[in-house]
Amino acid sequence: MNRRNFIAQTALVGGIASMTSFESLASTNNTDKERFKFALSQYSLRAMFKNKSLDPLDFPAFSADNFGINAIDLWEGGLPKDKLNDMSYMESLRKRSEQAGSHLFLLMAGSVDSRKSNMKGSVKRLIPSLKRAQVLGCTYLRVFLRADSLENSVETLKLLCDEAAKHKLIIAIEPGSSALSMKGAFLAEVYKKVKHPYLTLMPDFGKLKNNVYDGTQAMLPYAKTISAKMHSFDDKGRQPDFDYDRLAKIISASDYKGYIAIEWEGRKLKPIEGVLASKKLILDSFTARGATVK
Questions:
Q1: What Pfam families does the annotation carry (predicted)?
Q2: Which of 18, 161, 193, 265 has most Cβ atoms within 10 angstroms of its Cβ?
Q3: Alpha carbon distance 266, 230 (integer Å)
């Protein structure tokens, strides 16, 4: 795919102004060919950012040219520490992405703590991340929930989503940070009780403990993006930790429409090879279900 042929998607999300994302396209055209779209997590290439062989400013074009992927899932840990509060740098990154025909649709930040003693301070600490994501032109801020109870989690996320609304950003809650929040059914229950237009869920195959299949299925009705975690491959190119054919079947049979974001975490393959192998496995698994990931 030539990155210059990528068509930027600019429809409004559920009437929420200035939120551009794949979900808006899916809401107006529900054909199978447009249900699922590849995205790439910056974390997949973390070794290249660490050894400085890849500059974050070049990442959107690099993703388009090497993987044919134009939807970018950014990671704060992959951005220069001395530039995190430099909004001119964030504007430059956004412009470089636009020049590459790409969309910085998500920024992965830290965790939010639902314990009463930490709740408000935890929300406050994420405000700089919200500001970064807004300047970057993101639709989502990806956050981990450190949940101590259902009631406190609901209260915390209402506070955080109210802050996110001020920046026209949607909070995407990913499993992790506590035993409760690693359960898809728990996060689905939290979502239903929060009832906030600026909240969504983000299944992550690597962080859903006990049963990744049930957990994913529970989260799918409330998700707009999925983290397709990859750790390693066997001799047949399969992922030994998760049955991707089974996951593709669950996702394809659901009403889910949105991103399938590659997140390569393995070490046996180098970053580029790992992402390419991940993309192939996802394509093969969804194609076997009669589905297309573009």
A1: AP_endonuc_2
A2: 161
A3: 7
pLDDT score, position 32: 66
Q: Rounded distance, CA 177 to CA 207, Å?
A: 9
Angle between helices 212-219 and 244-253 (to 10 degrees): 20
Domain positions in the chain are 3-288
* In contact, 163 and 126? CB cutoff 8 Å: yes
Residue 47 has φ and ψ, to the nearest 5°, of -65, -35
Which residue matches tokens 């429809």?
A: 11
DSSP 31-52: -GGGTEEEEEEGGGGHHHHHTT
Query: Cβ neighbours of residue 132 under 8 Å, at least 6 residues apart?
Result: 76, 84, 87, 90, 107
Q: Which two tokens stand for residue 107?
A: 């920024």
What is the spatial distance between Cα 80 and Cα 59, in angstroms, rounded to a whole number? 13
Given a cut of 70, whether residue 7 has pLDDT beyond it is no
Amino acid found at 263: E
Structure tokens belonging to residue 66: 């090497």
Angle at 184 between CA 179 and CA 189, to 5 degrees: 100
CB 232 within 8 A of CB 239: yes
Distance CA(203)–CA(17), nearest Å, equals 25
pLDDT confidence band for 34 (50 / 70 / 90): confident
Contact 158, 196 (CB under 8 A): yes
Question: How far apart, in whole angstroms, are the C-alpha atoms of residue 164 and residue 159?
Answer: 9
Q: Nearest Cα to 188, choosing from 178, 198, 197, 180?
A: 180
Residue that wins the pLDDT comparison between 209 and 28? 209
